[in-house]
Amino acid sequence: MAHEQPAGARAVLLSPSAAQADPVLALPEPSGPLPVGVSTLHLVDGDRADPWVPSARRELMVPLWYPTLKPSAVTAAYMTAEESRVHLEASGVPAPPDLMANVGTHATVDPRPLRTHRGLPLVVLSPGFGMPRATLTGLAEELASRGYAVAAIGHNYEADGISFPDGRTTTCIACEGAEDETIGATRAADVSFVLDELEDSRFGRLVDSGEVAMVGHSAGGFSVIPAMLGDPRVKGGLNMDGNFRYPNDVPVDRPVLMLGQPSHSAGGQDPSWDETWSELTGWKRWLTVDDTAHVSFSDLAVLGDQAGLPQQELDGATVDGILRDYVTAFVDVVLRDCEPALLDGPSPEHPQVRFH
Fold it and tell me: What does the pLDDT average to over 269-283?
């Protein structure tokens, strides 16, 4: 079973034990009423050097999921073949190199987006350290099926496997001893840059980039607060099992949800959660999920079970359902100004979720 990773360590894709031969992997279907489309943007920040490769400009790959009325004929790939190979190799998984390239998804490529009068509310996703943006695809498809636009940021050189249109696939250079403060500041700057670019892109009328919720896993989770402090467009943030790596004496008056494994319980192994909780002055909730591990807060909860390599004691499909329900409920609080009963207290439908 995988355990929580420090910010500067790779989050393991699957436990490096014997995998089943050619397992068939697929994400659960989204529960919302709308079909989902996805378009991928290649963004280059000409004003900013990459912190991990200073000779290069900061460069990102950003898939944008959105609701559509008519799917296209092409189903979206989960990863490229090279992303799959690089990531599996870095994780030490004895599996076919294209395993993750063949994961079944439910979005189609570049269909006409569903248009709204004000633009779709936007959710930004930031993956764990060393983990490709694809590992949050299930959440992205779920939210898009419920009427949100969702942008997942592929933070270059912070993942084992990011493929670019010119054929390059980069590795996690930052995984070799990067400082937490640099990671948080870099990802916060990435979020602001992506919001600026979306406003000026062909999706400018589709997306309301002035009303944004951010959801992050691990390093993406601890980057939520720096992004909120640095950009007022980020109206609320959800940290999924990341430590808090920013000064805990900075009050935050916007909605924050802390969602983690049992080690992140109040008074638990990570004091940064207790310290941060006291500085949250707006709407806030602190939840943990029994029998989960660090990578449970990604697609790997359910994909690991399907591959015969469970990542936590709790059934992967159950974990996946919990994440979809609670993440959606939080995003509804931030972007739709509602108060789902699910976030009022313990629910008989999800007895594994504990409120602190």
Answer: 94
Please give the Cα distance from 165 to 63 (Å, whole number): 13
Which residues are 235's β-sheet partners? none
Q: Are 38 and 75 in contact (CB under 8 A)?
A: no
Closest CA to 115 of 234, 210, 34: 34
| Residue partners of 183: CB distance under 8 A and separation at least 6 | 7, 8, 129, 158, 174, 219, 222, 223, 245
Residue bearing tokens 């992506």: 194
Rounded CA-CA distance 18/29 in Å is 28
CA 1, CA 75: separation in Å to the nearest integer?
32
The structure tokens 């294209």 sit at 98
Q: Using CA atoms, how far apart are residues 71 and 151, in angstroms rounded to an integer?
A: 19
Task: Confirm if 69 and 35 have CB atoms less than 8 A apart.
Answer: yes
Q: What is the DSSP letter of 269?
A: S
CA distance 140 to 120: 14
Under 8 Å between Cβ of 37 and 150: no
pLDDT digits (tens, 9 = 90+) for 291-303: 999 999 999 999 9
